[in-house]
Design brief:
The structure is a single chain. This protein is α+β, with helices and mostly antiparallel strands and about 80 residues long. The protein has a domain of about 50 residues. Helices cover about 50% and strands about 15% of the residues. It is built from 2 helices and 4 strands. The strands form 2 sheets. It has a two-stranded antiparallel ribbon with strand order 1-3. A two-stranded antiparallel ribbon has the order 2-4. The longest helix has 21 residues. The chain starts with 7 loop residues before the first strand and ends with a strand.
Length: about 80
């Protein structure tokens, strides 16, 4: 009952997450991408500091959610099948 959701697959090599494996992961990735792109178009030309203030918390939240929802968690992988 205490199972974590699995929205992202693990990377084959290295540390971290791979691509999304569920629609929730794709939605999270799309939402983060929209924040960055729309911020770059509408906010960055006026104020680079405001752009950083928008993107940095979004990035931190994105990484935290991705880490919590990666199948098998984040650890170093050498490409071996699990």
């Amino acid at each position: 009952m205490n199972e974590r959701p699995e929205w992202f697959g693990p990377k084959t090599y290295g540390y971290g997450s791979g691509l999304p494996i569920r629609w929730q992961g794709w939605l999270l990735l799309l939402g983060f991408g929209l924040i960055v792109v729309l911020g770059a178009i509408f906010i960055a030309p006026r104020s680079e500091l405001a752009f950083v203030a928008l993107v940095l918390p979004a990035l931190i939240l994105f990484v935290m959610i991705t880490k919590q929802t990666t199948r098998g968690g984040w650890r170093w992988r050498w490409g071996d099948k699990e």
